[in-house]
């Protein structure tokens, strides 16, 4: 490998969840040895990858409108005598496959979430003959084996995929179809990747999986994996997402009370507060069982900041069902949350259910839920004022002399301080809590660097 090799320009746009963010980074790792360097402008790029999300209709439609623009860039490049390859990766690729090329013929290749390690070969094939650039098998094992061991690291925090797929089949959701069955990476491979990250300066890892707490690649499950990761020198903070209430076992709850590196922030989606709706969603928990679970988690870790996903306007949701969601929110008191209007996804059981809810009703319920959730988030942030929190400094701030970091509760923290603190965990006195962030100041006078 020579550094003078001509650099081909690679543009990747990522939609959807953190698993896609991880996959995009790994795609860049796969393509780097072929001479591809990242660019943040698609115009004139040699390879454009859209790493897509299929979760809601809007997410899917965005991809096609983006493709329309990329197609024009491809034409401009061709006029200038160049060549642009367009790849669609991720969950839309998995769900729609070759249909994408039919709908947008400018697309050269379609590669599902379990096949992007084959991209170099696919690119070569796509250049030879149109229509061969399709790979959408399910084999996470093969993929992880084929990915380069070394990762290109840019910051002090990193995502680390430990589990993929979903066997839960919530009736509204496409993920079991786009990501395949639940599968866990062997613990050894994860620990090796984490050690590599730590050597490159990563201090915090977020373990990823569509059902991360269903992890069974180590004896003792996710709790055992977390304990092993916590022993790695340099890894001082561990988070994981997304969890299903069903897989939140005693060992994992206990780890929250015992493993100092495990951060007191938990994203634990409930989706709705009405048992009738939860049943129709096939969630396998009731509002009551979820509330009891949260209680047990908070008994192990009293300062646990809870986060959640909600869907409003699921088929059959009446005003009193929605009210039950508001009641549950009031009881848990969330530090942050994401809420969505139910989106009818082709092929899922809920899309064929009677009692589809009017768009206007969904809008109105979403607004009421969001008002309550942002009130809770702001109150949680304001309650930090006056406390001293350990903050991981992630990057220089926008202004000179400013720093950006995160509290244990995942809140962004802004403070003044020198750049050499990036990568350090420092005590910060929180001065003010805002809607979505905190302002603080360094506690002790710092020695010169
Ligand atoms: N595995 C995770 C979440 C995966 S998708 C879990 O089980 O919680 C992320 C979120 O998107 C879901 O939690 C859900 O709130 C939302 N979502 C999924 N399908 C949806 C749909 N059809 N319409 C609206 N929101 C949806
Ligand atoms: Fe989708 Fe449910 Fe699986 Fe989460 S648990 S990915 S919401 S099917
Ligand atoms: Fe979207 Fe696929 Fe993630 S559908 S939310 S990118 S698993």
Give a brief description.
The protein is an alpha/beta fold and 449 residues long. 35% of the residues lie in helices and 21% in strands. A 6-stranded parallel beta sheet has the order 2-1-3-4-5-6, sandwiched between helices.
Q: Using only CA atoms, what is the Rg?
A: 23 Å
Proportion in β-strands: 15-25%
Q: Spans with pLDDT under 50 lasting ≥5 residues? A: none
- What would CATH call the class of the largest domain? Alpha Beta
How do the strands of the widest beta sheet line up side by side?
2-1-3-4-5-6
Mean pLDDT: 94
Protein architecture, described:
The protein has 449 residues and is of the alpha/beta class. It has four domains: 8-139, 3-Layer(aba) Sandwich (Rossmann fold); 153-263, Transcription Regulator spoIIAA (2-Layer Sandwich); 268-383, Transcription Regulator spoIIAA (2-Layer Sandwich); 388-442, OB fold (Dihydrolipoamide Acetyltransferase, E2P) (Beta Barrel). It is built from 14 helices and 19 strands. The protein has a six-stranded parallel sheet, sandwiched between helices. It has a five-stranded mixed barrel with strand order 15-16-17-19-18. A three-stranded parallel sheet has the order 7-10-11, with helices on both faces. Helix 9 runs parallel beside helix 10 and helix 13 (319-332) packs parallel to helix 14 (359-382). The radius of gyration is 23 Å and the shape is globular. The two termini are 37 Å apart. 43% of the residues are buried. Residues 166, 168-170, 173, 175-176, 210-211, 244 line the site of iron/sulfur cluster (SF4). Iron/sulfur cluster (SF4) is lined by residues 166, 168-170, 173, 175-176, 210-211, 244.
């Amino acid at each position: 490998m020579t550094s003078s090799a001509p650099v081909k320009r690679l543009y990747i746009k990522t939609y959807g969840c953190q698993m896609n963010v991880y996959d995009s980074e790994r795609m860049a790792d796969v393509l780097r040895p072929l001479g591809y360097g990242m660019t943040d402008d698609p115009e004139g790029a040699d390879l454009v990858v859209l790493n897509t999300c299929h979760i809601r209709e809007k997410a899917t439609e965005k991809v096609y409108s983006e493709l329309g623009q990329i197609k024009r860039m491809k034409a401009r490049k061709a006029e200038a005598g160049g060549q642009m390859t367009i790849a669609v990766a991720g969950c839309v690729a998995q769900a729609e496959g070759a249909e994408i090329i039919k709908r947008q013929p400018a697309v050269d290749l379609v590669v599902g979430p379990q096949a992007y390690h084959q991209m170099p070969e696919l690119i070569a094939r796509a250049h030879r003959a149109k229509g061969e650039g399709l790979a959408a098998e399910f084999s996470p094992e093969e993929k992880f084996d084929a990915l380069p061991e070394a990762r290109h690291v840019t910051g002090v925090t990193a995502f680390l995929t430990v589990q993929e797929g979903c066997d839960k089949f919530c009736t509204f959701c496409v993920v079991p179809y786009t990501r395949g069955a639940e599968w866990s990476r062997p613990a050894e491979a994860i620990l090796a990747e984490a050690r590599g990250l730590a050597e490159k300066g990563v201090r915090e890892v977020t373990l990823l999986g569509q059902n991360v707490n269903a992890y069974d690649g180590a004896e003792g499950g996710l709790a055992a994996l977390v304990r092993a990761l916590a022993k790695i020198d340099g890894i001082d903070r561990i988070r994981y997402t997304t969890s299903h209430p069903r897989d939140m076992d005693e060992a994992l709850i206990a780890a929250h009370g015992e493993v100092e590196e495990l951060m007191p922030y938990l994203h634990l989606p409930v989706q709705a507060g009405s048992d009738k709706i939860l049943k129709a969603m096939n969630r396998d928990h009731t509002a009551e069982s979820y509330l009891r679970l949260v209680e047990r988690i908070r008994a192990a870790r009293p300062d646990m900041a809870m986060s959640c996903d909600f869907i409003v306007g699921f088929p059959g949701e009446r005003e009193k069902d929605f009210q039950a969601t508001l009641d549950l929110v009031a009881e848990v008191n969330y530090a942050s949350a994401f809420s969505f209007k139910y989106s009818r996804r082709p092929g899922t059981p809920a899309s064929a259910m009677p009692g589809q809810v009017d768009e206007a009703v969904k809008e109105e319920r979403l607004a009421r839920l969001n008002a309550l959730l942002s009130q809770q988030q702001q109150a949680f942030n304001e309650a930090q004022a006056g406390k001293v929190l350990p903050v991981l400094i992630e990057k220089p701030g926008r202004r000179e002399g400013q720093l950006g970091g995160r509290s244990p509760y995942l809140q962004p923290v802004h403070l003044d301080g020198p750049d050499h603190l990036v990568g350090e965990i420092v005590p910060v006195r929180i001065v003010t809590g805002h809607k979505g962030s905190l302002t603080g100041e360094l506690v002790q006078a710092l020695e010169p660097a």
